[in-house]
Every structure is written in C-alpha cells, then in structure tokens.
From TrEMBL:
Region Disordered: start-end pairs: 1-31
Bilayer topology: Multi-pass membrane protein
Keyword set, alphabetical order: Amino-acid transport, Glycoprotein, Ion transport, Membrane, Metal-binding, Sodium, Sodium transport, Symport, Transmembrane, Transmembrane helix, Transport
GO biological process: amino acid import across plasma membrane
Pfam family, one: SNF
GO molecular function: amino acid:sodium symporter activity; L-amino acid transmembrane transporter activity; metal ion binding
Keyword Iron tagged: no
Protein name (record): Transporter
Domain of life: Eukaryota
C-alpha cells in the first residue's frame, strides 16, 4: 500500500483525515493479509478431499507405476548395457528419486497448492512450476499414443490366431513368434514375426521423415480417440471418482505381470537374457551418459517434477503421513521396474536363442516403444495355453498402467488452467484439454509418428524436466532454506529429518543433477532414431525449440519478479522477489497460527544455539536445531 503513489498523495492531504502513523499502516497491511488468507481458506476449503488415505496412496502408485516401468525402463537399460544400468539406477533412486518424491508430497500437502501456486515460497522461481507443466504437457502428448497402441493390440488379441504369431508370405527371413524353431534351420540372422507385424502392419513405419510424416492412420486414430475418452470420463468427475478407480488402476497390473514373469523365465534361452540384465559392465558404469539415463529414468518413472505429485498431495488432510507413502511408492516402483526388466530380458534371451544370435544385445536393433510391443507379444505368442487370454490380459494391463499416469498428467494440466481461469467449469476445461491433446496426438499415429515420439521424448520429456528439478531444489533448499523446510515437516508430520534427508536435499541431490545436466548438455550427441537414422535439420531445430521454450520459463519469471518488486535498493528488490510471500503456509487459520508460533519458537532456539556460520552449517546438514 505504501508504494502506491495515489495512496501517498492522499496521505499528504490532512484535511481528509489520514493518519500517517506507521502503526496504522501496519494494521492496514495486516488487515489486508487476513482478508487474503480468509479468501484463500474459503477457496481451498471448497476443494474436494480424498475419502481416505488409501485412495491417495493408490493414486500415487497408479501415477508412478506406469508405462515407464514396462515400456521405458527395459528400453533404457537395454540401451545402456543391461546390468550396467542397474547400479547407477538404484544409487540415483536413493539419492535423487526418494528425496525428490518425498519433497513434492510435502510441499503439496503443506501448502494445499499446485505446482504453480506452491512457489509463493519464492515468487521469482514461479517459472519452475510452469516449466514442469510444459514438460508434463509434452509427455502427455505422446504418452496417450502409447495407450492407443495398447488398445490396438488389445482388440487384435481377440483374433482366433494372434496376428503377430505368424509370418506374412511377403516377409523375408521371418521367424514365426508362435512356433518354436530349431536354431539349425535358420540361415543367417532372421527377424521375428512380432517385430515385423509391429513395424509393417501396426505402425506402417516409414524409412524416415525427410519427406514428411504422412497422414494419421485411421485405426490408430480411433484407438487414440478411445484412449482420450476413457481418460476424460475419469478426470471429468474429479478426485472422488479418480480415487475409486485408483484401486483397480494400481493393483490389477501386478497380477498379470507376475503371470508373465513366470512364463518368461521358463522359455529356452531366457537365463542368458536375465544374466545380461543383471551382470554389470564396470566400464559402462563410469560413463556419465549412463548416469544421465538413470536420472532421467527415475524422473520419468516416479513422475517427479511433473506437477502431478504436488497436485495429488494438495488434496490430503494436513497431517497425512506422506513420509510412509513416499517410501512405499518409491520402493514399489523400483520393484516393478526390476520385475518388468526380468520379464523383458528373459524374453530377449529367448529371442536371441530362437533367432540364432550369439549375443542378446543383437536382438531388436530399433528403439522406442518397439521393445515392449515386440518382446512381450512374442512371449505371449509362445504360450501353449490359450495365448489369446494372455494377450488380452497383458494389453489390458498395459492400457490400465497408461491410463493411471495419463489421468495424473491431465489433472495436473487442468489444475494449472483452472487456477488461471477459475470461472471455467471443470468438465468444460477437461473436455477442451482432451480435444486439443487428441488433435496434437494425431502426429504420433502417422507412419512417421515414432520418429516424432522419440524426438519429443528426448528434447521435451527428459532434459527439460531435469532442469526444472535443479531449479526446484535450489529454490526450496538454498533459497527458502533447508532448516525452514525441516521445521515445516516437523510441524506437519511430527518427525525430524535425519542426516540422510538433509545431506541429500542440500548437497547430493542438487549437485549430482547439476553435474549430470551440464555434462549431458555439453557432450550429448544428436539424437538418432534406432541408433542409425539422422533426422532432418528442421527436426533438430524443432526439438531444441521445445526444450528451450520450457527452460526459458525459469529466467523469464525471475526477470518478471525482479521488475514487479523493483525499488531503488537492488538488494531489497532481490530479497523481496525471492522471499516467501506472507500468504505461504498452511491454509487452515488455526493451523497457520500454530505454525507461526512453532516457527517463532524454532527461530528462538536456533538463535540461542548458533555461535557462528560453520557451526550453523554443520548443525543444519547433520542434525538440525530441533531435536
């Protein structure tokens, strides 16, 4: 108020009875703040809540345990030397995945805010939330096209003979997936009918996109439409229906996955594939690109820094035990990835055996989604007992996994847009987003669609999310403050943060991500589809535009905040732009009062114990002031 020129001018007019006493100004500001807090409380109090804690847990499992575990994890491990990838992946999960997952659940529940509004804790970094939303939109654009492929295979699974089990007469060097073939009968290298069916019949994949991507394929377009209709039906009714659906979305896939694992490990040659998966190549472990792949896989698999976890936890009760939930989901996610990896590589070992290859790494040269849509169908076709049943169940499972994550991504986009346009009904916003996303998704169901999918995934789905994660950790731990966050957690959950959380959050997690990010930025070579195809120059330019559009959100909003809070004192301008807003904190009025008292007590305790900077840093990193 005091910076408003008209207010100052009126204040100079004593005949209007204005009292320039600083106490009066302070009381006015407090009154305005109280009004803002009441309005915020009324607005958020109208939001629905989960019916019980289990619904939230199931929704997190359905979000994090998705196609990233079944489709992406085996493919990334396959690209990075199989077993060599497991050690970096598990290390990254422990020092990056778990801390980031717990952090996002804490931030959402503590502030009852989405990924944009939560940045009232440091307004200048609000662009981080928008960068995450843009990255989530990129992923959502192609993610649902993979669900469409699942629905296509699901429909084809009802055929009297699985169409990918047999070779078409026009396919050269084809080995039928539905039959066991003696390796001595194969002359040279051959290709399974499952792989040829996927590339020639389902995708009708072109040899490149130099001459364009082609027109959308009508059958895959219908499957894409059906996928979006399913997601819309779930999201349009809000978290009340989403919570109920989460039980099925989270639990059903495990039943089928275990059945397929048992089938895969009993195939001839499967042991070679599993050994390839679990045997580390120590030279690979030292390659930074393997660590970069581990970081990006953890982010993709757990859905961290996509805005979805913040959005879900914002519907929690204030005291829900999100620490327990974070530990359950991150552990289960790893278990699912390993389960899927054993199944995939068991099948790859069998494929190498059937196709007379000497090494498992020679199996399936093309990348992308083909690994999951070739190796799994191949294993199903070899089933001696009703393969159609296994196919129906498997692709239903894949579709369910995809829908669980798709619902979370769409809900995140909806939340951001509804906050910007609160007068628009939720169902109308959901319908609008689904229509736009469907039209964009038609790009991925063309003959050149897989080329575009890998391009968007490489530039928009991984690199950019890592950047926003770095900005998030710097904003929360280095600007808002590690000790402030741990005090908030202690007030909300009644538990202190151990050395593990403190050292990961403040040093290991951000430093590891920064090192991997800049090394990858400097050394990463141009993307090649399947490791061989060079994209047209225009495709690389478009990919970089996607990437840097999201990254640019962070500096743009920093500049905007500095301009908004500008003053003659530069230091004060920077402090105001990055300092938390007065409205940040618990929404409930009584909880907020208790929190402020708790923070005041913690601050006093800190001042009494603090003797110098080095001692302060030591205490914050290793044990905290609140014991």
């Amino acid at each position: 108020m005091s910076s408003n020129p008209s207010f100052i001018e009126n204040g100079a007019q004593h005949n209007k009875g204005f009292d320039p006493n600083p106490e009066t100004v302070s009381e006015t500001k407090e009154s305005e703040l109280d009004q803002k807090l009441r309005l915020r409380y009324e607005r958020i109090n109208k939001r629905p809540k989960w019916d019980n804690q289990l619904e939230f847990l199931m929704s997190c499992i359905a979000t994090s345990v998705g196609l990233g575990n079944v489709w992406r994890f085996p493919f990334v491990a396959y690209q990075n030397g199989g077993g060599a990838f497991l050690i970096p992946y598990i290390i990254v999960l422990i020092v990056v995945g778990k801390p980031m997952y717990f952090l996002e659940l804490v931030l959402g529940q503590f502030s009852n805010s989405n990924s944009i509004k939560v940045w009232s804790l440091s307004p200048a970094l609000k662009g981080t939330g928008y960068a995450q939303a843009v990255g989530g939109a990129y992923i959502m654009s192609y993610y649902v096209s993979i669900i469409a492929l699942c629905l296509y295979y699901f429909a084809m699974s009802f055929s009297s003979t699985l169409p990918w089990a047999l070779c078409d007469p026009s396919w050269d060097n084809c080995v039928p997936s539905g039959q066991s073939v003696n390796a001595s009968q194969i002359q040279g290298n051959a290709t399974s009918s499952a792989e040829l069916y996927f590339t020639k019949v389902v995708l009708r994949q072109s040899n490149g996109i130099d001459d364009g991507i082609g027109l959308p394929l009508w059958d895959l377009s219908l499957c894409l439409l059906a996928s979006w209709v399913i997601i819309f039906i779930i999201v349009a009714r809000g978290i009340k229906s989403t919570g109920k659906a989460s039980y099925f979305l989270a639990l059903f896939p495990y039943v089928i996955m275990i059945i397929l694992l048992v089938r895969a490990v009993t195939l001839p040659g499967a042991v070679n594939g599993i050994l390839f998966f679990i045997t580390p190549d120590w030279n690979k472990i030292l390659e930074i690109k393997v660590w970069y792949a581990a970081v990006t896989q953890v982010f993709f698999s757990l859905s961290v820094c996509s805005g979805a976890l913040l959005m879900f936890s914002s519907y929690n009760n204030f005291d829900q035990n999100v620490y327990r939930d974070a530990m359950i989901v991150t552990t289960l996610d790893t278990f699912t990835s390993l389960l899927s990896g054993f199944t995939i590589f068991g099948v790859l070992g069998n494929l190498a055996y059937e196709l007379n290859y000497d090494d498992v790494s020679q199996v399936i040269g093309s990348g992308g989604t083909s690994l999951a849509f070739i190796s799994y169908p191949d294993a199903i076709a070899k089933s001696p007992i009703v393969p159609q049943l296994f196919a129906v169940l498997f692709f239903l499972m894949m579709a369910v996994l995809g829908v669980g994550s798709g619902v979370a991504l769409l809900s995140m986009i909806n939340t951001v847009l509804l906050d910007a346009f609160p007068s628009v009904p939720t169902i109308l916003m959901s319908a609008s987003v689904c229509v736009v996303a469907f039209l964009v998704g038609l790009v991925y169901v063309t003959p050149g669609g897989q080329y575009i999918l890998e391009l968007v995934d490489f530039y928009g789905g991984t690199f950019m999310r890592l950047f926003s994660a770095i900005a998030e950790t710097i904003g929360v731990f280095w600007i808002y403050g590690l000790e402030n966050l741990t005090v908030d957690i202690q007030f909300m959950l009644g538990r202190t943060c151990s050395f593990y959380w403190r050292i990961c959050w403040s040093i290991i997690t951000p430093v590891l991500m920064i090192v991997v990010f800049f090394y990858a930025m400097i050394t990463t070579q141009r993307l090649k589809f399947g490791g061989t195809y060079d994209y047209p120059e225009a495709a690389y330019i478009a990919g970089n535009c996607l990437q840097y559009f999201g990254i640019a959100m962070v500096p743009i909003f920093i500049i905007a905040a500095l301009w908004k809070y500008r003053s003659k004192n530069i230091t004060e301008t920077v402090r105001t732009a990055f300092r938390k807003k007065p409205t940040y904190g618990p929404v409930d009025i009584q909880k907020r009062k208790e929190w402020k008292e708790f923070r005041a007590s913690a601050k006093l305790n800190r001042q009494m114990q603090r003797k110098g900077w080095f001692q302060h840093i030591f205490i914050v990193l290793f044990r905290g002031y609140q014991r």
